[in-house]
What we know:
By secondary structure, the chain is an alpha/beta fold. It has 2 domains: 2-57 and 352-403, Roll (Urease, subunit C, domain 1); 59-345, Alpha-Beta Barrel (TIM Barrel). The protein has helices at residues 34-40, 74-80, 83-99, 114-124, 155-168, 197-209, 221-230, 251-260, 271-279, 281-296, 317-326, 331-337, 340-345, and strands at residues 2-11, 14-24, 27-33, 47-49, 53-57, 59-64, 102-107, 131-134, 174-177, 214-220, 234-241, 263-265, 300-301, 363-367, 380-385, 388-392, 401-403.
Amino acid sequence: xxxxxxxxxxxxxxxxxxxxxxxxxxxxxxxxxxxxxxxxxxxxxxxxxxxxxxxxxxxxxxxxxxxxxxxxxxxxxxxxxxxxxxxxxxxxxxxxxxxxxxxxxxxxxxxxxxxxxxxxxxxxxxxxxxxxxxxxxxxxxxxxxxxxxxxxxxxxxxxxxxxxxxxxxxxxxxxxxxxxxxxxxxxxxxxxxxxxxxxxxxxxxxxxxxxxxxxxxxxxxxxxxxxxxxxxxxxxxxxxxxxxxxxxxxxxxxxxxxxxxxxxxxxxxxxxxxxxxxxxxxxxxxxxxxxxxxxxxxxxxxxxxxxxxxxxxxxxxxxxxxxxxxxxxxxxxxxxxxxxxxxxxxxxxxxxxxxxxxxxxxxxxxxxxxxxxxxxxxxxxxxxxxxxxxxxxxxxxxxxxxxx
Length: 404
């Protein structure tokens, strides 16, 4: 098939006016000016013209939980729902992401490998959905954050065993709960560190033996610092919480994050809108300023919403991007955080995140120009995921997308 539009954003702020993209066998076969691409395509190839639209790489949500239902007891519900039922619900949530233009997600916490199973079903083409980079069950301490998902491990021997189980089960990466969190009843508070630096280093080293990066859930300042020193691949949330209930953006740790080239996913979601009222104007501005400060110090940030937890619906990815815009990030940079930069962080930058010949055909067509107005990313007209084309259809009985 050939798709054409007045603007094709290929990546890194580059775009082609009156451009076109040819898709063949799941890959991008050609990209360039419309006349040339169409002229070189066989006459039998389907053609889709999108006036007043922009074609860009498919979006990447770098932090989701497909097993969670966005409810107040999402963790317990996921733990107690039968596998078959939860698997079907996860597939539905994946389709909602796809309908929003998201063609890749990084799932950072399921139970019993259900996201890994769904990853394989989508890759085989038996289920519609975005590409999934799956962490499997997150590692935590006994009674720790998200313990109900089944990843409890205490001590170095148990931690090595937990990593090896994840590798055995096919996980693409390892997720470790460095600190407590906000969705585990009677669990450690978000600021409290759950593992020692030595234990975290064991997780990182064991994962590295099998080529797996480590994503560190870390809200507290101490947890962030220990995760960085242990050599994790990415820090999730990075809330900079203190035991006293405040925030302490440690510039020495920020500098270390930047110097090591680690990734930070601050999980900006639709919740930022309600935060203004909940936190008050001064604290909300301080929240935005922490994002600005990390950016100013060269920390590599990517877009991810924590979709599945309370206040983070699966269809609201663009709301999270608008949070970065509220903080003053340039639109072009935000789009890169949700495409090429996220793909690099996920270890798949050689196959997706950009529009170039030979890359996976992960494409998004939106009406308008998102470089001028980022909210135009909501105006989805077509989604191509691994070469399979879908149109958003709110009336469809399969969570908002309909294959062509």
